[in-house]
Write the structure tokens for this entry.
Amino acid sequence: MHEPFQGGALTETTFFILLGTYKPNHGYGIMQFIERETDGRLTPGAGTLYGAIRALVKKEWITPCGETENGRGKQYTITPAGRQAVEAEILRLKQLCQTAERITGGKQKC
């Protein structure tokens, strides 16, 4: 996962993992969150999801914050750096939409 903090786009999976950790959540819960929030359009496999989670922990964008109720899994929460990455991505997406609206004459509103 080579996603620079400034100037680079986050992958959609990374963006949704970060959103899915605004409240403490475990891996399977994050997977369910992504599927629910994208109406099933995005369905990350376990390998992709847990690889991305490990990378985000390493970048310090999310952090383990405890275990699941049954003690069989970790829960994760977004860090201030992760929130900053989400905010930067939202700004980038807004600018992308504004450019597209300007070029297309606003026929497709974002």
Q: What stands out?
A: The helical segments are 12-19, 27-37, 46-58, 80-104.
